[in-house]
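Exercise 7. Given the encoded structure of a 305-residue chain, write a plausible sequence.
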């Protein structure tokens, strides 16, 4: 049976663009609910300047309060050495480092060019490795940029080659603004696989902005991706990317993979309950389908043609 690992990103990417600020205790409960459902990797927070992303201002407090459970790995997003220092002091198990594929978006997201972000990422990988902390480099806007439009295959190939040279433990491609379709996934994952060492785990970060996220997840599995990011309820977005709406919903992926006989080790019912809980805390309906449609087969209350 095929196995896919889900990395739950709702505590970080799911909340970073929300107007409603969850309390530290509520963020910890979101993490705890994720673990109870069987999630083993969780992107808990980001160690960025609180004026830039006020939703993540309590990063250290959240990390101090999350339960330490055997087999569960906590990740923090870092952009620079200061962020890495904070993440290491907070006790993260892994760090996510972002390289953006276009200069315009890199400038708005990090205040640097793409090449400068790659140089910084390489330094952060080396520093994290010295601290025995695992690293992922995520290539943001790998499928399209909100400012420059399409990202050419030549451009993404060159960026991926430089990321591979930085030597992270894992490499991820992010459809930051949700423009990819399955053929894009197949094509760019093939480029990634051709450049990365065979031993390097490959990951995708999918957004469902245009309702292609679930289809793209199927293409990712077929292309050999072993790790997929998702967010409970489909919460999420990027404060630096216009119209970047939610991540692909965790519960939608779990339903998909259950029906495809692809193993995730995640309890769908508990994830649906977590999505409903998160909607109540945020005071809004989230994009995920399963909190309304429910699992199938299940208790069917009625049917219509």
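Solution.
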């Amino acid at each position: 049976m095929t196995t896919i690992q889900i990395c739950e990103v709702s505590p970080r990417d799911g909340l970073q663009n929300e107007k409603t600020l969850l309390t530290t205790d509520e963020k910890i409960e979101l993490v705890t609910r994720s673990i109870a459902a069987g999630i083993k990797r969780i992107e808990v927070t980001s160690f960025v300047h609180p004026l830039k992303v006020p939703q993540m201002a309590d990063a250290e407090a959240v990390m101090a309060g999350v339960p330490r459970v055997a087999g569960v790995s906590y990740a923090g997003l870092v952009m620079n050495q200061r962020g890495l220092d904070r993440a290491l002091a907070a006790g993260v198990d892994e760090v996510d480092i972002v390289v953006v594929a276009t200069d315009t978006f890199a400038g708005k997201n990090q205040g640097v060019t793409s090449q400068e972000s790659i140089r910084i990422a390489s330094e952060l990988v080396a520093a994290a490795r010295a601290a025995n902390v695992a690293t992922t480099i995520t290539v943001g806007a790998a499928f399209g940029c909100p400012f420059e439009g399409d990202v050419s295959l030549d451009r993404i190939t060159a960026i991926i080659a430089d990321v591979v040279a930085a030597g992270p433990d894992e490499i991820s491609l992010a459809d930051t603004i949700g423009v990819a379709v399955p053929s894009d996934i197949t094509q760019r994952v093939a480029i990634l696989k051709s450049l990365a060492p065979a031993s390097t785990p490959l990951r995708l970060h999918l957004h469902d902005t245009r309702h292609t996220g679930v289809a793209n997840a199927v293409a990712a599995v077929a292309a050999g991706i072993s790790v997929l990011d998702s967010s409970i309820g489909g919460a999420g977005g990027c404060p630096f990317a216009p119209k970047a709406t939610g991540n692909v919903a965790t519960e939608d992926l779990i339903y998909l993979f259950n029906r495809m006989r692809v193993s995730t080790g995640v309890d769908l019912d508990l994830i649906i309950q977590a999505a409903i809980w998160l909607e109540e805390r945020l005071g809004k309906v989230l994009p995920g389908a399963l909190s309304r449609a429910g699992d199938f087969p299940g208790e069917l209350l009625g049917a219509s043609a």
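Remark. Residues 114-130 form the longest helix (17 residues). Students should compare their own answers with the one above.
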